[in-house]
Amino acid sequence: MSRLLLAAVLALLPVTLSAANRPNVLVILTDDQGWGDLSLNGNRNLSTPHIDSLAREGARFQRFYVCPVCSPTRAEFLTGRYHPRGGVYSTSAGGERLDLDERTIGDVFARAGYATAAFGKWHNGMQPPYHPNSRGFAEFYGFCSGHWGNYFSPPLEHNGRLVRGNGFCVDDFTDRAIRLIETASRDNKPFFVYLPFNTPHSPMQVPGRWWDGFREKQLSMHHRDAGRPGLKSRQRENIGHIRCALAMCENIDWNVGRLLAALERLKLADDTIVVYFHDNGPNGVRWNGDMRGRKGSTDEGGVRSPLLVRWPARIPRGRVVDRIAGAIDLLPTLADCSGIPIPPAAGKPLDGRSLKPLLVDSPKAASVEWPDRSIFSHWRGRVSVRTQTHRLDHQGRLYDIGSDPGQRRDLSRARPQLAARLRVDVAKWKHEVLGELDSKRVRPFPVGAPGAEWTQLPARDGRPAGTIRRSNRFPNCSYFTNWTEVGDRVTWPIDVLSDGRFEVTLYYAVSKADVGATIELSSGSSRVATTINRPHEVPPRGGEHDRVPRQESYVKDFRPMRVGAIDLSRGRSDLVLRATQIPGSQAMEFRLLMLRRVATTRPCE
């Protein structure tokens, strides 16, 4: 029986699959890769044959929408709900965390008997129970922060424990994913693998194998405003940055090829749903079709992403879908395709809908009856709305995207009724969806979650006081320096979820001349102190791998030092790190506290 005939027959059958007969799922999400950063979409500056093959061998969505930045898109993929509903309002310092009462796609597939794993950049919470291991992913290897300071053998974590990465991180994440797929195949168990790559997000680092082909490359495709006089520096193309971003994209493509080859080798390709999409618009001024907007923008160019879905057993080759869709649709779609019911959750309705009818339930996507709808894009109070044909931007201007993809002709006066209706829809969405954020902006960091051995409290989440300064204005992957006064301190608002004794390890750097500071960690009446008596003077790292200058912090190889054990009582308090004696010019440079539960209850006095 031909593959197309088999797909047509299967599409008519009811989906009542046991776990052993359900399809595998592999989801690849890239970071800061714009819609235009694929040769599939007409960019001649690079070649992405493996990614392009997903469209040839499966389905391609022409108008798929994500969020303007990283953590909101991840939250919408994980929950099938708009990100403000889940409490995600920022990309750092706690605002990236996904509310604990949200059900995730990991939960859904784990409960259906899948081997679940995530490899790469999580960016929806670090401390358990926000951690991926607490959100349905039995296996996690990567980092939970919004960005990382070095991509070559960096410090990472594996199921809560700190480890050292192996080579270029995207290659490393792919190795781990292939290993998990091989194990699941050997155990005859379906897998759900989430692979959120952290490139081409800056810092701009890529192995020489890919950089060498772009170092002096002449670019033939440019941003729509390139050459326009009077541009500010941030509006101009940075050729070095573009070259490295494209080199990183070709490295991603190579790794996608490795994944597809592994599925073929293991004879899993036909029964594996492979999904590929990006988390926002491009992280720089470069070719992106004729669209307006880039990362951070709610315009078309800031939120349009490719969506490629390959499932040879069910999806006809070369299917093109022109209906609008979004990251909110992926949970219901993948659950529906896998025959997994999503139990209703009180007060937690899905915003997305299953795209399965457009993929497998009809010979042609265009023949499917599909009710019109709108998809909303939000960031920092700016909201735009996309219908099947038009976009109303955050300033109330209306554009016909079909005839004006570059958003050059405002039609709000020519189409006043449509513009007015969409403005009402936006106002309603702000009230109903953004309104849910009001009570979620102040949330302490959990410590001692039941069943979790480790809790990380990085400098990113701490609040400095006194002379202490961050190594960079972007909190992710930063550390604290200039700790010069005894009154200086770093505070974490915490919520201890269960009483316990915790062993404390501090990650620091200090010069030989500054050794001797006494450091105290306290919460209420509980405290533990130690003296830094061993120098650890190391230079910043990361710059040696940068292809162009970075904006983010450099990093250091901080030394772990055991501080001692502290008893923490259940409830909310402030965890305070301070120096009670500073004999040198500064106490230390500080990166991280690791708390390890060593007793479930406080010992008897």
Description:
By secondary structure, this protein is of the alpha+beta class. It has two domains: 3-12 and 24-364, Alkaline Phosphatase, subunit A; 445-599, Jelly Rolls, CATH 2.60.120.260. The chain contains eleven helices and 27 strands. The protein has helices spanning 3-11, 49-57, 70-79, 105-111, 169-186, 208-211, 239-265, 300-303, 330-337, 356-359, 416-432; strands spanning 24-31, 59-65, 115-121, 139-143, 155-158, 161-164, 191-200, 272-278, 304-310, 319-321, 325-326, 375-379, 382-386, 390-392, 398-400, 445-447, 454-458, 463-465, 469-470, 480-481, 489-496, 500-509, 518-523, 526-531, 559-568, 571-581, 589-599. Strands 1, 2, 3, 4, 5, 6, 7, 8, 9, 10 and 11 form an eleven-stranded mixed sheet that branches. Strands 16, 18, 21, 23, 24 and 26 form a six-stranded mixed sheet that branches. It has a four-stranded antiparallel sheet with strand order 12-13-14-15, with helices on one face. A hairpin with a 2-residue loop joins strand 12 and strand 13 (382-386). Helix 5 runs parallel beside helix 7. The protein is globular and about 75 Å long.
